[in-house]
Design goal:
The chain is of the alpha+beta class. The chain has eight helices and six strands, in the order H-E-H-E-H-H-H-H-H-E-E-E-H-E. Helix 1 runs antiparallel to helix 7. It is globular, with a radius of gyration of 17 Å.
Length: about 260
Amino acid sequence: MYAGCIRVAGGMSDVAGGPKYGKHFIPLESNPDVFTQLVHNLGISSKLIFTDVLSLDEPDLLAHVPRPVYALVLVFPVTETYEKQKADMEASCPEYAGCGEGEDIVWYKQTINNACGLYGILHAVSNGPARDYIEKDSIMYRLLQGSIPLEPHARALFLESSSELEEAHTAAALQGDTVAPNAEDEVNYHYVCFVRSCHSGNLYELDGDTKGPRDLGTQLAEGDDMLSEGALDAVRDYISREEGGDLSFALLALVRDDSGN
């Protein structure tokens, strides 16, 4: 049973002693209305929205999630267990260097403090079928077209320099149910995105505060979306790493919702 709904998250850089960034954003609530407003601010079709996923196991609760689901964004506490496992996993991993149209997955390195919610959203809409809902000449369209040819560091700086992206993010970040923290506050929660490659069909874990995208070695069956058992298993595995520790997780799904269109 998936329980807990943490309503503010920032990024790994929020942890005391973490890297210092030149730019800071107001952290996003893990609130589907805030996430939905931001994707629409960026120029994603109104047919796409975010919604809460209230269980990973109970069919009745899962049935309330509109289908298809194009991406999952998980918010979780940054614990010592997580930090150690992340360090162990990355010890032997090279820095990602992919770029261009042949790239299997679009990944953005996080260089903006407290913006991991934004990076989760960017990963969700830049990959898989959701990419087809980016409207021409929108902010997201320009960001994607400009960043795809760039290697990861240049791509990160391209996003960081976008005043349009910053304005869209700020407008959404101020609309939460709680008083928004300051941009430079320490917020000890983090977002990661799970999404399917539109090229290979492989399932990926995308975290802007790691060395690169993580291919989970799983291909979803024909017709399966990101609420299928293969994708949910990836989220369950992520949560199980805490081994009885802090289980204050929440999950958001990027879905197509035709009910209001």
